Fold this sequence. Notes:
Blueprint: E1 3-8, H1 17-20, H2 28-44, E2 49-52, H3 61-66, E3 72-75, H4 86-96, E4 101-106, H5 108-115, E5 123-127, H6 140-152, E6 161-162, E7 166-171, E8 174-179, E9 182-186, E10 202-207, H7 218-222, E11 234-239, E12 249-256, E13 259-271, E14 276-279, E15 285-288, E16 291-295, E17 302-307, E18 313-314, H8 316-321
Parallel strand pairs: 1-2, 1-4, 2-3, 4-5
Antiparallel strand pairs: 6-18, 7-8, 7-17, 9-10, 9-15, 10-11, 11-13, 12-13, 14-17, 15-16
Helix pairs in contact: 2-6, 4-5
Amino acid sequence: MSSVGIIANSLAGKDIRRLVSQANVVSNQDKSNTLRRVFSGLLTMGVKKIFVMPDITDLTRAAREDVQDKMDIEILEIGRIDQAGTSTIAAELMEQNNVDCIITLGGDGTNRAVAKGIKNIPLLPISTGTNNVFPFFIEGTIAGIAAGSYAVSKIEKTELLLKSKKFEVLINNKIEDLALIDIAIVNIPFLGSGAVWDTNNIEELFLTRSEGMNIGLSSIGAQIKQLGALDENGLHLIFDNKNSENSHILVNSPIAPGKIIQSKINEWKELVPGEMVKIRKEFRTIALDGERTIEIGSNDKIEISLSLDGPLVLDVKKILSKTNIFNIQENNKYL
């Protein structure tokens, strides 16, 4: 039976960067309306069941009411709601239920949390966060149609998927976390508010993607070397925040909406998949996809490695390019 998972982060698009830049707030009403359109697309394509991650604002309530008695809806039982690990737990449960794909509403951080909980289930990420390099800017109805078409498809589905990259963070030789887009080594020894918006605090930056069309830390790398989602390599930048004479690259980049700042880069290199980079710093924090997440202790051995085994992503353009996705019946009659 075809089924789709829904993971909508009610907290996405509301962090402190709204106070330090001109980033807009994505309201829960906007997210709810997007979900109604997603459910409409899924229903039209014939998806039989939807698994929903619960959240404290009940974002999917209106969408569930729209399809009441037309689809089987299951709200997952999760002990903790709207916490850091909720999306990861929901993704794990959806994989256990063998959903065909998962639709996410959030930014890079939301999708990073989901990626930690899945192995083989592909994602269709809808952008509603702050850093939106990984997710798509796609209308909800179209997202629902694409995900629904994929879920009910009878053809070989691997041809409808794209691979993505990720960074793995190893602490004392053990993989402890991951990032989908960027990792920043920050010279602040505590996590605090989490968000990174001042490059004066960044000592090193790792990027899986660096494209000129994106806002965020990845835009810094885009001024040096542009790498897309399908390029195998990544980037490693070393910053100079001590105003030394060694700074030989000055980069102006939009690290947040309306916030363009200059960064000083000492050196940079492309990273190849499997390459391991050691972080020889103490009393720093590691920001994963824009959020300070890991505190580096004095005895920690930190290594970062680029991997091509990131989450699978629906190739929406290819799915929608297939003819007759609405199962139109031709009868050779004309009006």
